[in-house]
């Protein structure tokens, strides 16, 4: 608590738009509008610091606050020529919460505060409109009781008002007379007395004090906390309270209220967008009691007012240099602005508005680039569920969004069925594969599916990683989803879904819906291309893609990839024509059999690489040598065990039993307690050098073949899982020999490089040894941040779901470290490695190829620590390009300071 | 190759004992003895640098070397009044290898080099002893052919000499006449010609050149490489070559040869120890052809010579200030010293000699402390196989020595049988548990066994860690050992061992023998206690123990432990009376059942702690809260699966099936892909706080109870597996509350501390946050170097065997990082953590509790980076005390420089 003897209450004209921290977004913008001369009802803002003071104080308003409030109120009274609580021309006020960031979880608004018997009577005298006054009064009692006294709004509405209307035989509120509203007000007050055991507060300042406190309390209500968690808003910001003189949209037929956007927030088109309702208060619009009309109708209804409104919109857009979301009220034909803020917009709108505003000369290209977020682009690049179809729709279940985009299809429960019914070789139906979790045996089924849904796993589970790799929408970790594989059903909260039933899933939100919802195709408009070209001209970080096959590589190039940063060779091994050969190689008892299998794999791998090299034509391609433990390619241990036990008990097929037992023994021999940290990566290359020798030969032979066709090839051979410099030296020496031999045999020179993944913490610690031309001699590093995060945290990504979810909920971790690089820990290792490697080898090429390569915050971190490129899945390439440009802009701005 | 224009050949008087690097141990000591005036036959040494030059040169002797050799030979010739290759008084020489460290793998010796027709004739003329000359000649041919020409010595012996003797009807070499030896020499020369296709070299300088080259070659023969690997001797040291004038122990009955130690190398007693043989050459003693007599007999046979020898021994002991291993020759009644070096000794001898020499005023206490190694103490602290029983005994198999000491017992193949037959509650038989690998289900059987033998796993496998914890001898990773659990047999290289057969295993060497070998009990003599007291007065590092039960704690205190550095609470959960309650707690579906189980565990845990606190009376006790994943306490998944499948197929017991299926589902629900990095440690404490709350209450209640009995208690509560400061803060806040409550309830103040393990790489990276009193507020750190090594390297210790063995063989890793701290990687993290923690909390207590706490090199590293203590298993406490003292001495010495 540093010197909070500072100003607690700001009159609107004392603030400005830059004071969001102190005044909240709403307060700051009210101040700004006031100062640029727009018609804003006078008022004042109690700062966010007071909110923190309130909590530090054990939930007590600081002493003296209400004195400051009274002083401010004096000013408002003078400005309005009214008196708060006065018996002549009484002043009514609205009380609204307003944090730095808009937070729908918090208390929103109390209108008409200051009403009581006395002021109501005075207002009737003044307006001669008792119906309006009692309507306002009953609204005030209900809102105040709801948010301050904790009584349910619905009880007032349903129990009292509805009953009254039924008794009277009224169908609509319009039939209610002044007397009716008066009676209702009295009934409401009676109900409050009954429920709370005390009278509804009549002193306006008591009302105000209680309302202010209620706003502060709402900062820490359940919904607000949840919202902050999901939006990553810090808990210590606090909310401000805005107190503003009421103007009445329901003061008669020459009054009204509305909301508007200065451009279309869903398409970005430069048209006035919004709606209004005459003779109504804001909540009528929101509640949907009456149907508002499009803002354009105001033009015919009241051209002068419309002209005035359009002018204000233009002023605000020019002033804020962004599309604005506005609230306004018309009182007796006079326009008042009640709120303005940057308007939320869809991805397509964000791109179009940013690009248009550059053409309009409103903002610079750099600003345009910073106006669009990764999730905006994400929307643009994947089919989405039509937002209209989502209105009022409740998901069946919501899991973890793991691979963006929406998908519709028939539920299937196993990969073989998916492959049989699905696309890419199957019957061509749209299916969605639903599994507890996936494993490499499921890949062919995943490929044939529109989408994947799993009950277990996190964002970096097998399903998530593979789905993102293939660009298939995926929802994982849908806890509560119970699959009965035998019955071929899954059940969620009592709803049972059968094989063949259609579901829709949204991999961007995690929501899963019953039935087929309409999808909207991705829109890669001209504005998108233009924005990306600006981003490309600004950014310094290069963007590559993770691609294991020509299809992904092609897609990524179309989306702007400048190379392949990670081509995983083992995914190629899982394809159905190869897996049996791979298994033969692994299970070979003697060298000849093993070599024979490798010899058969060689041309297949070579063809894989040739296709990829052709697509990437002249762009660098980083190929990671085989990484996973060999047992991943073998049949499931548990299934084998079950088969063996069954065969043993049955005793009717000794030959099959013997075979299965043999296979089980082999699988058991390779089984590992912690395969993540077992015999894989370069360890495998040292213990069984044959596989990587074959792969290196395949890479070089492919490069030679493609080069002979006149296409440039730049293979970068990446040795995974290095932790000690001697591992790199040993493997590299062996493979360099193979590479040289191919070049010698063919007489074609290939410009290849050897490098290593930095994914073992120890590798980061000895990066100088690895990079040193006299030692490990790695010509490039690629930070494998998935594994580096796993080992730096000691989190197995396959198992972390069980504690990662509570960790994020309890804020033990600020963000999911598998999503955004943990800068304090993992990032520290990356920084150390980068610095020490550059010291011994200034020209070393540094990249990142973990999942983080497509996460904007992580991309920015990579820029800051001086990497050369990031690599991400094809669909995230534009997001990375954008984030890289934003990083360059932020960095330049920081440099200016 | 820096300036090798340096001196290549040193005459003995040009060197000294400090030039071991350049002249090798043998050469340096010959030089030293020459310079202190002892009777050493003249000679010279070709340096180790020449050996490296030889290899750098593509295995060619450097140009000009033989010129230097000739010049040196000239000096020897003059000194001896003889001529190399001369036809009058010819000079013969011996050629011996000699590296910095004694290496039995290398070529040892060629004697009598320089003999040929001419010199033999000249020597006969000179000595008038043709039998001696031809005997020497045939020996030379055989040795030279063996080591230089690559012909087998045995062929000469068996094929030619034996055949000749049989033909002649001779029973012993003594019957061979001069003529016989001459004939044999000729047959030998003929055999060489036949086998190599060329004549045996007759030019003495050619003989010498070839011999020198053979010595250099022997540096890289298979045996030498293997020896260097096991002894951790660098490959680039090279060997020197010693060329020395021959003196003849077989020149007649007034001649002889022998070896001696200045003290008894097996007990350390100060008595002359050794044996000699008259009229013999050194190899006769070694070959065991004739039986040598004890050195003491020389006293009666030749008192003057004996007196002279004793005097030389005294001179050498005083000069070298250590027990010496000597070779000598008597030629015509004249004594010559051929070698002296520090004598190898047993553990007991090392301790006794070091202590005696301090009392004799020969060395300081500091020197005494540095003269004893960890493995010396290790021998002292465990029963050993009687070395006499090992003579000529071949092990059945040799695995990885995992827990020191020898054990004899009947083979059993499962833990239940071990528990039934074995000690601690069983029938009291001595059994050895033989398993593929062990798991927590086997612990009760391990406890009941004399020793444990596993076919799989490394030094930090479950078996190894548990065995060391319990002080049970253990050999792991005995690859090649095939267990047939059903038949209850194991097979090794065709030998089948049945249940009940007796074997002997040596956990210090990894050897396993068939049958019962006699054991020698540990000798903790007065000298040991005295040495330890000196070590304690020198060392700065404190030494604690890892102990999970009062028995271990007591033993450790007896061995000098100053506290408990790691008390693992989960081992307590595995004991048979508790496991069912623990399982009940884990499987509980509702909170009440879980709490009930915890309530029943509380008094049991409290009693555990009370007993330990009583034993440790006033010494600090660090208790680690539950660490392993909960599924470790549940039945094996595979066994359950097999049972379920069997019950399903049989279909005759639906009720049991349903129960087992339920249990299987529960176990499957908890199963993890990589349990090492799953839901364990503090993650468990956050997700299921009940267990650690119970444990904290048990610790505090135990402390209160013990304190009430008048015994001081200093519990240190350690939170494991912390990676993020918020984990520590969350768990600590919760447990601090529990602790305070107990103190409040009982009114007894307990001086407790909270701290954390540093075992996750990230923890080391953010150590300042963890230690900061304003943040994580850890009052102590204990480096859990087992896990830290696992995660820093990404090596699962359960699986690493498969690549760690080839890694060590191929020198990819210099040492096993689970044995000795990897200073470059893991050590770097430890250093960073230590420095950053001390910056924010200078008084933080820092320790280490991994397996490394008992490894001398690691203990020294801990001293250097400024830890306060190391903690190790009870039997390694003295070793750690010694290493800590050695570290302090080394540090002081470095400070002097």
TrEMBL record, chains A, B:
Its EC number(s): 2.7.9.1
One of the record's GO molecular function terms: kinase activity
Family statement: Belongs to the PEP-utilizing enzyme family.
Keyword Mitochondrion: no
Keyword ATP-binding: yes
InterPro entries named in the record: ATP_grasp_subdomain_1, PEP-util_enz_mobile_dom, PEP_util_AS, PEP_util_C, PEP_util_CS, Phosphohistidine_dom_sf, PPDK_AMP/ATP-bd, Pyruvate_phosphate_dikinase
Superkingdom of origin: Bacteria
List of residues binding substrate: 568, 624, 759, 784-787
Ranges for domain PEP-utilising enzyme C-terminal: 526-887
All copies of domain PEP-utilising enzyme mobile, residue ranges: 429-510
Active site: 462, 849
Catalytic activity from the UniProt record: pyruvate + phosphate + ATP = phosphoenolpyruvate + AMP + diphosphate + H(+)
Binding site for Mg(2+): 759, 787
Keywords, sorted A to Z: ATP-binding, Kinase, Magnesium, Metal-binding, Nucleotide-binding, Pyruvate, Transferase
Name the record gives this protein: Pyruvate, phosphate dikinase
Domain Pyruvate phosphate dikinase AMP/ATP-binding, chain residue ranges per copy: 21-58, 65-292, 307-360
Pfam family, one: PEP-utilizers
Cofactor requirement: Mg(2+)
